[in-house]
Amino acid sequence: MIEVQDLKKEFDGTKVLKGISTTFDSGKVNLVIGQSGSGKTVFLKSLLNVYEPTSGHILFDGRDIMQMSRDEKQELRSEIGTIFQGGALFDSLTVEENITFPLDMFTNLTYREKKRRAFEVMGSVKLDGATKKLPAEISGGMQKRVAIGRAIVNNPKYLFCDEPNSGLDPYTSNVIDDLLMEITEQYKTTTIVNTHDMNSVMTIGQKILYLKDGLKEWEGDKNTVMRAGNKNLIDFVYSSELFKELREYLLKADKSSI
Ligand SMILES: Nc1ncnc2c1ncn2[C@@H]1O[C@H](COP(=O)(O)OP(=O)(O)OP(=O)(O)O)[C@@H](O)[C@H]1O
Asked: Which positions carry the signal peptide feature in this UniProt record (predicted)?
């Protein structure tokens, strides 16, 4: 579980995060949504202390990253998996080597143990058939799965993903969403995902945090988002005609069942 208390971040006096408080449960996929520029990436990077917050508290299962020494932060980082845009794979390493990389870097496992763990993870992300391929030889969706595999190989307690579906077709996006859900439930990770993908919102949004201009405008889940009364949220989520019609249909169905 990650608890965020009154998180603020400014850059040279410009307030980007203006005091956000929320809780992200473990074993759940938590989505952060909002217009471009609303502060989603700064929020994620502040939670990770990539950007040092201006003020506030961020508690990782009760441990406040704002109060931690450098060594304690280092220790915490070993419990965190990240999938960031531009967090490119190593082009000259095979799928298996990419996934094994964090084990080489951060563990003292034996060769055999690393091999076993890497194969377990490649099974989880459904890459068993591509272990010896180079990133250039596999599709964008498979590359995303390698990135997910690399992020989970150390059994992280916390998983952060920035736009995991960007650049993927709808089918492959669903595959990635299903995978994030499976991993989160199987390993009980606290998973936080920044997304623009409304399909993800409707399917894996076990918690949804909607940011607007650096503030929490609304929070709920995929069931409550459909019936939410917040005008800004509705305008944002239902800017697609298809979703707008779906919402109207559901609200009518609600009324006719009363
Ligand atoms: N390193 C930085 N220094 C100064 N300002 C920044 C920095 N990073 C982001 N900002 C500003 O913070 C605001 C929020 O940016 P952020 O990248 O978090 O938005 P976002 O919601 O993730 O957008 P998008 O959906 O387009 O990725 C923007 O106005 C941006 O210019």
From this structure: none
